[in-house]
Design goal:
Largest sheet: 6 strands, mixed
Strand order of the largest sheet: 6-9-10-3-11-12
Helix content: 55-70%
Shape: elongated
Distance between the termini: 66 Å
Radius of gyration: 35 Å
Length: 582
Amino acid sequence: MLKTLGKHIKGIVRESILTPVCMIGEVIMEMIIPLLMASIINDGVEKGNMQHIYLIGGLMVVAALVGLAFGVGGGVFGAKASAGFARNLRKAMYERIQTFSFANIDKFSTAGLVTRLTTDVTNIQNAYQMILRMCMRAPISLICAMLMSFWISPKLASIYLVAVLLLGCVLGVIVTSAMKYFSQAFPKYDALNESVQENVSAIRVVKAYVREDYENEKFKRASDGIYRIFCKAEGIVAWNGPVMNLTVYSCIILISWIGAKLIVQSSLLTGDLMALLTYCMTILMNLMMLSMIFVMMTMSAASARRICEVLIEEPDLSNPQQPVMEVADGSIRFEHVFFSYKKDADTPVLKDINLDIRPGETIGIIGGTGSAKSSLVNLISRLYDVTEGRLLVGGVDVRDYDMETLRNQVAVVLQNNVLFSGTILENLRWGDLNATEEECRHACQLACADEFIQRMPEGYNTYIEQGGTNVSGGQKQRLCIARALLKKPKILILDDSTSAVDTATDARIRQAFAQEIPGTTKLIIAQRVSSVEHADRIIVMHEGEIDGFGTHEELFASNDIYRDVYESQTGGSGDFDEKGGM
């Protein structure tokens, strides 16, 4: 884990070195000041030597200013180092996530990844700053103060030593007891973030179904879970203060009592007693600081593990050593393909799929919910890898392609259409970064999106809110289709992406495809038979298997599932738009 995290201090090595150096300098100045104070009292005040007082007092001011400079430097360099470390971790995690396949992403919830990128990285940032500053300062300060105390009076310093050992044991018990609660706390942030994310992204549905109270209760449960764990952890850590105060005041009383006797016996000077009391506070406060460091390290250890899980996650999909860099055509061939989302699944999602699709064909895909229609097409652009068998595109196994090359030639409009915040043109150019406005307009005309864009006040420069909340579902689908067309792909996959448009618009989109991109292989997943009945051939999926494959006429004559679906949709309960709205 440390090795994984340590790779990301690149670029902040200088600050990471200067921070502890400044802390050491500050500690040295702090250790000198009590000795100078003792000298003022012993050789200046008690002997009435004003010159000595001025001289040593001046040295104390210089030491204090130098210590201040070191302290400020440590703070500045520590902040830069920790912020830089957090930046590097977030960047590395984000870039790693971009390499993940769908299977990798399925292992981490969206809320879990958000927590890792925010809360967990912040914990590591705070811990790193504390390591650079306090982990260096506290032990050195404690050791130096102890050595100085033994140099002044071994007898009185023995009190510190006993107090440190006892206090160390007690604080060890406190930290160990709190550790298990902190380890449980941060994973619960995933549930909290998930609750917030779902509520905000689906706020319209929440309000439409009057589920605000339910969502509030759901958030309250997630929040209370974190609250209870932190209360338990902080309740244990709260013993630090009382135990520390008891130890400090006990040491002060013992040192004052024994020290006074030694002064009376002329075995100890008054200034030395003052220095010992100062060192007493330094030792015990640094010990308490160490205990807080252990608490912080415990809190950050759970976060570090969660961050490392993302950083060391190996993408399931990778390019071969000598990838094929060109897709010859849009032909697709499935050869005894089996597929499971989990390798140890008892039943595969797709079972013995055999298909041969020619370039330029329009293939309809229908089937009931859960029949694995989307799973079938997700394999084509290699969003997942087949479990068994082979899948060939352009006559080449998809696993032999450079993934970027393959995905540039296979445009997919997924079920869940996503638009990003920005103008319509900016969203369209996800398909082709260098597309001209005229090319964007032409793609929108093919997708029947140009008509509603022209009615918008700013046309193609209209700003799309995050998630496309200011356009309708049908408009969002048509924009996503236009975006996919700009890729000029050899294969176009529409995964139920015209479900929110009326049948008349659906028919116009299909007609535009047939006329404008005849050489592109088109796979259209649909629930409406009217969307696929004019396709060259139609695949009927049932429970992960191909139940039928042929033209509309062939399937209507030979396939019970297709015939039942067709008759149910064109009978008395037929499509609203097809009946003219009657």
